[in-house]
Design brief:
Length: 343
């Protein structure tokens, strides 16, 4: 791909040789001839041998680079070009002889089904979807078009996935939620877990994440949401559109996370909490059961607005200094007392 073509695709202003051929994307520290990279901030101190660098508006040259393309958002532009230069592997339509497919399952056109996959009764696999080795699709499951189901993913009975959903290795969708009722004798009896999971279009879910089925209703993941590795989504959770949830977050049952929220890593949610649209929750925060998190930036346990969290942290850090000051005051008081007693 020539640099003039790249500039046209990303709507940038090209400085330098528009005929430079770009074959791959690379980090700015390792990019060489034929590679494209990007810088986000001040480009004046950058030195590189990259064939092309995508830089912020105002940058016209970067030391060592053959050409520069100036855009408003270099990282976004780079991501789009990298996707074109490094497209995902497309496997030709195939059903591996070791795959086990129910006789009444519906398999669309252009579907790839790898070794040791299973597709259950009454399930539907949409056009162009890939099931990688060892993927298990239960009964009554609906998969949309152009989904990618990576190795050893389990999609349990009755789950519904939209188009272009990506589930990375080890994801479990539709397992029973963690719901028990304590009986008269103190033993726990299982509450019915007979609901469903609905995952909308363009959702991507990281490795070994678990999405539990609803107890009686549904667990739903909204369109365009991205969930990292090792996240637990409990039964009846409702996650809106275009949310981002980082690794090791645990979401208890019946939590609602509205559209366009950002959740940091290792955040813990108590049941029935609600996060309103546009809220940002920092890493390792704790959201108490039933808490309503308004739009804004939040941190800490229990969760609180970021400014309050910073003030409390500042107070805690000042405790040692305060302790020393009190110790000195006590010494002075003792001297004053001794002086009074001598008089």
């Amino acid at each position: 791909m020539r640099t003039r073509e790249i500039a046209e695709i990303i709507g940038g202003k090209l400085f330098g040789n528009g005929e430079t051929e770009i074959t791959a994307a690379a980090d700015i520290s390792a990019a060489g001839p034929g590679r494209i990279s990007f810088v986000k901030g001040d480009a004046s101190a950058i030195e590189t041998t990259a064939g092309c660098v995508i830089a912020p508006e105002g940058a016209e040259a970067i030391s060592g680079a053959e050409c520069v393309i100036a855009v408003r958002d270099p990282k976004l532009a780079f991501a789009r070009i990298a996707a074109l230069l490094h497209p995902p592997k497309v496997r030709p339509p195939e059903i591996h002889p070791t795959a086990v497919i129910a006789s009444d399952a519906e398999i669309g056109e252009g579907v790839f089904i790898g070794a040791f996959c299973t597709v259950g009764e009454r399930s539907t696999i949409g056009n162009g979807t890939h099931l990688r080795a060892g993927a298990k699709i239960g009964d009554g499951v609906t998969l949309g078009e152009e989904c990618v189901i990576h190795p050893n993913v389990f999609i349990e009975d009755g789950s519904t996935l939209g188009d272009r959903v990506i589930l990375h290795a080890g994801v479990v969708v539709g397992a029973d939620g963690f719901g028990y009722v304590r009986g008269e004798s103190g033993e726990y009896e299982k509450f019915p877990q007979i609901g469903t999971v609905v995952i909308e279009d363009d959702v991507e879910i990281g490795a070994n994440t678990c999405i539990d089925r609803g107890a009686l209703g549904e667990t739903r993941i909204g369109a365009g949401t991205k969930i990292d590795n090792l996240v637990q989504v409990g039964h009846n959770v409702q996650i809106g559109k275009r949310c981002v949830i980082a690794a090791q977050t645990g979401i208890s049952g019946s939590v609602t996370i509205e559209d366009d929220c950002v959740i940091g890593g290792q955040v813990g949610f108590g049941d029935h909490a609600r996060v309103q649209s546009g809220a940002v929750i920092g890493s390792q925060a704790g959201v108490l059961p039933g808490k309503i998190v308004r739009p804004g930036v939040w941190w800490g346990t229990p969760i609180q607005p970021l400014d309050e969290y910073k003030r409390q942290n500042a107070h805690v850090k000042g405790l040692d200094r305060l302790k020393n000051e009190i110790r000195e005051l006590k010494k002075k008081l003792e001297k004053i007392k001794e002086g009074n007693e001598d008089q």
